[in-house]
Amino acid sequence: MQKKPKVALWSGLTAVSAVLTAAAMVATFVVAPMYETTINVATNASTYRIIKGETNEDTNYFTSTFASDDEREAYEAELCATVESEGAALLKNDNAALPLASGAKVSLFARGSVDLMYGGTGSGAVDTSSAPTLKDALEAQGITVNQTLWDWYSSEDIASKYSRVTPDAISDALGANSQYGVNEAPWSEVETANASSFAEYGDAAIVVFSRSGGEGADLPSGDNGSGVDWTGDTNYLELSQEEKDLLSGLKALKDAGTFKSIIVLLNTSNALELDFLNPEICGVDYGIDSCLWVGDVGQTGANGVGMLLAGAVNPSGSLVDTYWYDNLANPAVTNFYSRPYTNNADYGFAADDKDNGNQGYYVVYQEGIYLGYRYAETRYEDYVMGTGNAGTFNYGTTVAYPFGYGDSYTTFGYSNYSVTEDADAFTVNVTVTNTGSVAGKKTVQVYFQSPYTDYDKQNGIEKASVELCGFEKTAILEPGASENVTITVDKSELRTYDSNGAKTYILDAGDYYFTVADGSHEAVNNVLAAKGYTPETTENRMDTAGDATLTWKWNNAALDTTTFATSEATGNAITNLFDDADPNKVSYSPGSVTWLSRSDWTATYPTGSFDLAMNDELAAALENTQYDGSQADSVEMPTLGAEGDLTLASMIGADYDDPQWDALLDQITFDEMNLLITQGFHNTKAVASIGKTATKDENGPQGLTAALTGGASAMCYTSEDVMAATFNRDLINDVGRCIGEDCLAMGYSGLYGPGINMHRTPYSGRNFEYYAEDPFIAGEICASEVQGIQSMGVYVYLKHVALNDSESSRMGVNTWVNEQTAREVYLEVADKAVVDGGAWCTMSGFNRWGATWCGKYENLQTDYLRGELGMRGMSITDYSGGSHYMDSADALIAGTEIWDSPTPLHTGILENYENDAYIVTQMREATHKILYTVVNSNAMNGWSSADRLEVITPWWKLAAWSLCGVLAVLTVICVVMLVKAVNKKKTMKAE
């Protein structure tokens, strides 16, 4: 009997194979080309091969100092622990609760104890799956940990019920809407399940309070006075009720003799409100004996915490943020979160429109220069002196721990304090003596005060009461031992920016004070003492007597408007660049802003968010614009694609202005320049015409991380604030060197980091990848880290320059700030990192300065970064895969060289200008900067001037083509079989 033809089977197989073929072809020939760069980076696919030429050149330009990967990794594991042990700050240590006694038996409480914050989320995230736990770290020091309690907190049931809520790595692409939650286990459950184990492990109850932070979402602060409720009902940085109940429960057990002491670890880069440490403030005595701030500990930093708790290392870290009893007492919080212009609807600006850059959202830096301690100490001094209409300001009930504070297990004394002056600097000398009973290190901090003059008041210049201007760290001093410390303070540290009068940096006439102090508050009290103030003479407005013997006064006879009016780095004149970010000066102002001023604290203090309104001129400035081609014929078309035998390796060691660059650039085609400039997502592309290899660039505020691209990661160091809190340049320079070593070992030439934005408030989601609230310590530590990283041939991209200090509406938010504030606070870190650290590159922010996106703000990209600071390398955008407001042509003109983009969006834009000589010239100059950066990097290792590069098809593309071919053949086979089946069926019917 003849078999029935399988028409249905072959119809189905034909349909399936046809759909799969069509899908594969669309993916391969339509979608994949749009994301080719991303796929190449994620799969580590080669897009070229090197054809070696005959040469005797030594091509090992950058070499490792380690004999093996194992040696490097072991050294870095110890280094990370050392950074933590030197950066953690001891805040409270009553009853000598720390260090723990040898062989102590302890209980660890709170979910944070088994789930430490090693780092933040997003682009800074690093794999810490193999990181030691706090229990591991304590046991390594001979401390025994309550296993029953540990197992309970670690159990799957408790972990699932009470896991810390954190934002996704990149929530909602580039504009997170994640919520943060504490979600601590209730004390009743903790006690019921574990009470029988407490007495045996009662030498100490160690409580770990952890808070998360990450890219894309700022932390909720509750009603901050702005009229916007950012949490529903929660301030994420105050203790939750469950945490308070935990402390109360432990206090009761301590009173009953179950626990000898209660120790709190602050495992966060976002400053918790510390009212719970002071019974007079919170109204409850939780019986806390000791408190140690540890920040985000990094991959092996828990070992450093263990050493500190056990006394193997003496704490020597100092806070790099002001810690408040109530974070809302910080004036910056009032205007921290972005808000819409009051009449957005009239102009059609949609809410959360990331593609067009949130044109209708703004933030105002109304606090001006008075960030953190600059506010608290200055208002305190004016309150003490009865100046500035300071009102009733109680420092003791406002600030829990000042900037620069850090206790020790020993004590130190200062003597032989002196300051000498020369033409360009002051030299501070002081003898530090360990006056206690155990060995330890001491951070020596130097602060200065500049005069607040009538000229300042008339010209709207603000002055902080004290500013950090120098520091050093002693070696380990044995009890009774001393060290003479010398600190040099450049006179440029005393300058201030006058944006209304001289319109440049000035040095005021009057008295300047220098003091050595343990933190900002001690510094201002020392200066007050030198002026003759005491608690008695001020009716106790002055809370503590200062030490006038630790101050030195210098008088500047006359106002100086010329010494600092010229850039030391470039010789260019310095004048106002950022007036169009000041609502009080720009023509399209959305309204006037009253900046916080010490001339009248009460009248200028932020009492609510500024309600600014859109207007026609501002709306026009915020529209997505694009170069109109009007300059096309203003220059001659550059030579493109010329014959030549120069390679990029030929330019190794050449100056930027070497005439041979022109000949090299002539060989490059328009298409090569276009791809190099516009598809710079985690790489710089190969350029075959000049033998330029592709480079791999990667994220790295805490160390090399490939969290977003799927590659291998390296050592995750502590959060940047812990690095800064070490006050140890040499140590962080070594961290930088080792990050560079990791990049060298793993084939990376560029690093998206360090992060250089500011801790404007404790609520910024990315505080973990920024150093501090103070630009001096941030800039000095950053410069040291940058020097270390770049010593291994790795070019850094300082991110995100600038004013990207929050995540709220970060995609294009309008940032309003005055010029003095921008220069003295928010650009100072870049200044030090570029000028002193030699940083090659920067990454711009998503935000706007006023109405102009950072990347196309010529005053920032060209006039400031290049014209004033002398930056040598390239400026890259933040991720720009689908953001039309980050326009290619306009930004290129402004001084942006490369786009952090995996798609052809910007490639397509520049293609429209292939015949525009002006844009092509800008592309050529951008290409020059990119190549100059790369030729001075480790990307040239192994390359000689005799080598050639040949472009090849990456393996994944060959595989995709093969898949399409196989599916197409299968489809044809199915069609043939279907036709045969249909014909057979027809034949059988005919019979």
Describe, in plain words, how this protein is organized in 3D:
The chain is α/β, with parallel strands linked by helices and 991 residues long. The chain has four domains: 7-31 and 961-990; 97-315, Glycoside hydrolase family 3 C-terminal domain (Rossmann fold), CATH 3.40.50; 408-561, Sandwich (Immunoglobulin-like), CATH 2.60.40; 610-621 and 651-951, Glycoside hydrolase, family 3, N-terminal domain (TIM Barrel, Alpha-Beta Barrel). Helix content is 32%, strand content 15%. The protein has a six-stranded mixed beta sheet with strand order 2-7-6-5-3-4, sandwiched between helices. Strands 21-22-23-24-26-29 form a six-stranded mixed beta sheet. Strands 9-10-25-27-28 form a five-stranded mixed beta sheet, with no helix packed on it. Mean pLDDT is 91; it is low at 167-178 and 224-232.
The CATH topology of the largest domain is given as TIM Barrel
Mean pLDDT: 91
> What are the segments in which pLDDT stays under 50 over at least 5 consecutive residues?
167-178, 224-232
Q: Strand order within the widest sheet?
A: 2-7-6-5-3-4
CATH superfamily placement of the largest domain: Glycoside hydrolase, family 3, N-terminal domain
Q: For the terminal residues, how far apart are their CA atoms? A: 14 Å
Structural class: alpha/beta
Q: CATH class of the largest domain, anyone? A: Alpha Beta
Q: What can be said about the biggest beta sheet? A: 6 strands, mixed
Shape: globular
* Helical segment count: 29
Instruction: Tell me the β content.
Output: 5-15%
Strand tally is: 30
Helix content: 25-40%
Q: How many separate domains make up the residues?
A: 4
Computed CA radius of gyration, to the nearest angstrom: 31 Å
Tell me the CATH architecture of the largest domain: Alpha-Beta Barrel
Protein name: Glycosyl hydrolase family 3 N-terminal domain protein
Domain Fibronectin type III-like: 442-520
Pfam families: Fn3-like, Glyco_hydro_3, Glyco_hydro_3_C
GO molecular function, one term: hydrolase activity, hydrolyzing O-glycosyl compounds
